[in-house]
Specification:
40% of the residues lie in helices and 16% in strands. The chain has helices at residues 11-20, 37-40, 60-73, 87-95, 108-132, 160-174, 191-194, 203-206, 214-217, 245-258, 272-279, 292-308, 330-337, 350-357, 361-364, 369-378, and strands at residues 3-7, 25-27, 50-55, 78-82, 100-102, 147-152, 179-184, 222-223, 229-231, 261-266, 283-289, 315-322, 343-346. The strands form 2 sheets. Strands 8-9-7-10-6-11-12-13 form an 8-stranded mixed sheet, sandwiched between helices. The longest helix is centred in the first third of the chain and has 25 residues, at 108-132. The protein starts with a strand and ends in a 20-residue tail after the last helix.
């Protein structure tokens, strides 16, 4: 197992990471960050220990330079930063090769999880480096893989993107900077609008052959203020020409090795791209509206999945826009589907207002039955998410 090298001037942080690693820690003498990688690694004989934790508090720019240098000189090494800048620093850090950015106040159990993951990634990189060397064969360790949650629907207009964005935002609150949302509605994806983002790069950039490297891929991510990473949909349908199912498969495989949760917002129906996503999906969220065409369409999709033996134990059925006054009851829906419904979201005026403002309900802190239901969906995949109202930031707003 990879040991952890810690560079910090904080005795408190050293103590907390010592606790989180059960003592499997090599701390440098308390003080400012070393000037360069040679000085940083002098105490270990010039060899990187696998995981290096740099306390960037008060020296952010220098910490990023050290992280970039470590990545160039020791590609198998993993760098974790500790900083109180949070999401403000996260995307820049990721682009120089940092695996994770932790707050100085991160609870000890969360520190343990983050550092264990860093060790896993370090072991994977070390193995890749060994097997790449001539004449050396090593047993392959298990690849760390995140959960891939695809949100699908047989038809459009059922609120699928609303469910996807709220699920992703909710998961990002439980696992900051470890969640990515992919807009896989190839031609008419609207995730960027739903999150009030103006992305510099979009899905076509992320699936270019040159982007099939983790370091390069990270440069195409857009960071939301909740700590959620996003691959936004193409600007125009024409811009998405050339994206094939195999590109989608490669993208999701790579993201699953870098993130704890990968949420995929698919196009309506079962296109080539949606089927490719399903091949790499661990959990399927099926969404329909509470009307006859929607429910019948979902029944056909469920029948197809049952025939293929897919997701029998990992499907979550969500009925959206529920309104008994429209002539259908929940019992009618269950009888038509021939399956249990996991979540019913009532019709609500809060939803279109949220969509128009580009602020998901689980980010705005708006209370109501729909928000409660969306939180229950998140809790199917992650621990309970605190209901904390977040002040709206207009940085990067459209």
């Amino acid at each position: 197992m990879s040991h952890i090298l810690l560079a910090t001037a904080s005795a408190e942080l050293e103590h907390r990471i010592h606790e989180a690693t059960h003592g499997d820690l090599f701390p440098l003498s308390l003080g400012p960050l070393p000037q360069d990688t040679r000085q940083l690694l002098s105490a270990t004989g010039g060899e990187a220990p696998g995981v290096v934790v740099l306390d960037a508090t008060g020296s952010t720019e220098h910490a990023l330079e050290l992280a970039a240098d470590l990545g160039r000189e020791f590609p198998a090494n993993v760098v974790v930063l500790v900083s109180d800048l949070g999401t403000e620093l996260a995307l820049t850090a990721m682009r120089v090769g940092v695996l994770d950015v932790l707050s100085p106040d991160t609870p000890t159990p969360d520190l343990t999880l983050a550092l264990d993951r860093a060790r896993q990634v370090a072991e994977l990189r070390r193995h890749a480096a060994l097997t790449a060397a001539p004449g050396i064969v090593a047993a392959a360790p298990a690849t760390p893989r995140g959960r891939v949650i695809s949100v699908v629907s047989p038809k459009g207009g059922v609120g699928k993107t609303t469910v996807s964005t709220n699920l992703a935002v909710g998961l990002a609150k439980a696992a900051p900077q470890r969640v990515v949302l992919v807009d896989l509605d190839i031609q008419f994806g609207d995730v960027a609008h739903a999150l009030n983002l103006t992305p510099e790069y979009t899905l076509p950039d992320a699936v270019r052959p040159a982007g099939h490297d983790a370091m390069v891929l990270k440069t195409y991510l857009t960071l939301h203020e909740t700590g959620l990473y996003v691959i936004c949909g193409a600007d125009t349908p024409a811009a998405a020409d050339g994206i094939e199912g195999e590109h989608v498969a490669d993208l999701l495989q790579l993201l699953a090795t870098e993130f704890e949760y990968v949420v995929v917002d698919t196009a309506p129906g079962m296109s080539e791209h949606t089927l490719a996503a399903m091949d790499h999906t661990t959990d399927l969220v099926l969404v329909t509206s509470m009307d006859v065409p929607g429910v019948r369409g979902l029944r056909k999709e469920l029948d197809t999945l049952n025939d293929l033996g897919m997701f029998t134990d990992a499907r979550h059925i969500v009925i959206n826009f529920a309104d008994p006054s429209r002539g259908l009851s929940e019992a009618d829906v269950r009888a038509t589907l021939g399956a249990d419904v996991d979540l019913v979201l009532p019709l609500s005026k809060a939803v279109p207002a949220s969509v128009n403002q580009g602020v998901p309900l689980l980010h705005s802190g708006t209370r109501g039955p729909v928000t409660k239901g969306l939180r229950q969906l998140v809790e199917r995949f992650a621990p309970a998410v605190p209901n904390v109202r977040v002040r709206r930031s207009w940085v990067g707003a459209r």
